[in-house]
Protein: Tyrosine recombinase XerC
Organism: Thermogemmatispora argillosa
Amino acid sequence: MLQEAVETYLATLAERSTGINHHTVAAYRNDLSQFAVFVEQRRQRRRWSEVESEDVQAYLEEMRQVRAYQPTTITRKLAALKTFFRYLKGLGLLERNPLETVPTPRAFGATVPVLSAEQLARLLEQIPPFTPTGMRDLAMVHVLYATGMHLTDLVALDMGCFDRLRGSLVYLRGEDRVRECPLTSQAIMALDQYLLRSRPYLARHHPEEPGLFVNHHGRRLTRQGFWLVVRNYAQRAGIAELTPCQLRQSLMMLAIKRSSELQGIQALLEHAHVSRGARLSRPWGPSARSDALVKRG
């Protein structure tokens, strides 16, 4: 009963959100199914209308004390639940949302260690600027630097998301939220090179592929695929245990250090407090100078 409503919600989400990818759907399914099992087996709830705020609080304690989840993981799972319960209430299946009184846990308990400018330079030096995959990888890194988007959003971009005339990327984030991210001149140049000289070769066997960034088979590059590529570059550069979050935060901090417009970056990041600068994790714009990255190709 509980899982059936989850699957219906996910099907509706996929239908309404054309920009959503299967990785995002899988993450939602995991988060919601985990909660469904908890309330059914541990709290004896058989319908979503029976779930109380106390059940949610008990689940939060389970994640903190028993499963030892990080605050960021708990925040993500709670966000998925809030969206799901808003959906149920919108259908009239709930009289009230049990998450309305549940506070969001603090997700910024620890800073993410970032790479130095020298380490980033070494990392970029490993990317061959004149090979098809190298041009693709440089374009992706420049887009990450210019927009600060999550890797999940990066690999979900379609060809139609790049607006060359406006110099920006326009894509769907969440259920129905359209986001436009301006690009730096370096990012536009890198994308132009990739689209002109690299992508046609990589996608030669699958020209119909809608994904903006493709692998050597001509199919959309996955998050895991891109991360394997980056890890390979990191190993060559002598950088151990580089994570996606660390790369993203490192590029962000490099931009902040090269910019005197921290408040402008904060606004694009949609955070109100400048004091959080070193811990920001939401999409941001290219207020920082584009020459902060090592110029390659």
Observations:
- The chain has eleven helices and three strands.
- Strands lie at 162-163, 168-173, 177-182.
